[in-house]
């Protein structure tokens, strides 16, 4: 981490932390390091074949990616960043068996190493993560997201299964947010709050932001959503 902190990139991050760290919640994003890193190094199709034909190679690639990301994240933590975002794009695609074999060990290693720096960590697995909720919670992260309804994830189901172990974030249908009426968005926010808020440890957020790309935001909808985020503990839904 010492060497990274001397680079121009992390010196720029330090300036951001110094300028905005008091007023804003700052999130650092290290390189992908689980199976997603193998797809970067080997290509998506080849990496999918490798988990069957060359599992030892996949593990070596992941180990290297994990070392890199841990080093980056220690640098983030030492600069005073508040939280770390980590993700596995292919988690739902490879399924529970391969997720637990190839992704869970490096995720646990990452979390256990970074926890000593007292930094929050949240795990993003988009798409259908329904069968991965328990393994995601088993990583030891503070929060899992995005509870993508477009992938079939139900906030109430996630709350009942792992909400006592880990904070939850997400669940709002991003198609509705991008193209729906204000009333549709409000009702969807209410649904998520009813399902996720009991007992606390729930953050209202989009199921996934990619579907918002290129869509001009309706500021009224976004403002209403923000009001729900700020005031939902006091609302009668």
TrEMBL record:
Residue ranges annotated for the Uroporphyrinogen decarboxylase (URO-D) domain, each copy included: 14-217
InterPro entries noted in UniProt: Methanogen_methyltrans, UROD/MetE-like_sf, Uroporphyrinogen_deCOase
Species this chain originates from: marine sediment metagenome
GO BP terms, alphabetized: porphyrin-containing compound biosynthetic process
Lineage, highest ranks first: unclassified sequences, metagenomes, ecological metagenomes
GO MF assignments: uroporphyrinogen decarboxylase activity
Name this protein carries in UniProt: Uroporphyrinogen decarboxylase (URO-D) domain-containing protein
Pfam families in the record: URO-D
